[in-house]
């Protein structure tokens, strides 16, 4: 499973402490080129929808 898949699964299961916590982690993955901008935006949209 890649970074995107793992993050997607965490978000779908709501397996994170807070929106700020998961947002911070997604930002780090984006900065380290483990997510591209499209993936990042999709995951952030899911986080903000919950």
Note down, in words, how this protein is organized:
The protein is mainly alpha-helical. It has one domain. 72% of the residues lie in helices and 0% in strands. The protein has 3 helices and no strands. It has helices at 3-12, 19-31, 37-49. Helix 1 (3-12) packs parallel to helix 3 (37-49) and helix 2 (19-31) runs antiparallel to helix 3 (37-49). The longest helix has 13 residues, at 19-31. It is globular and about 25 Å long.
| Beta-strand residue percentage | under 5%
Question: How many strands appear in the DSSP assignment?
Answer: 0
The largest pleated sheet is described as: none
How large is the radius of gyration?
Answer: 10 Å
- Mean pLDDT over the residues: 96
> What percentage of residues falls in helices of 4 or more residues?
over 70%
Give a brief description.
By secondary structure, the protein is mostly helical. It is built from three helices and no strands.
Task: Based on the model shown, name its key terms.
50 residues, globular, 0% strand, mainly alpha
Spell out the blueprint of helices and strands:
Elements (H helix, E strand, L loop, with lengths): L2 H10 L6 H13 L5 H13 L1
Helix pairs in contact: 1-3, 2-3
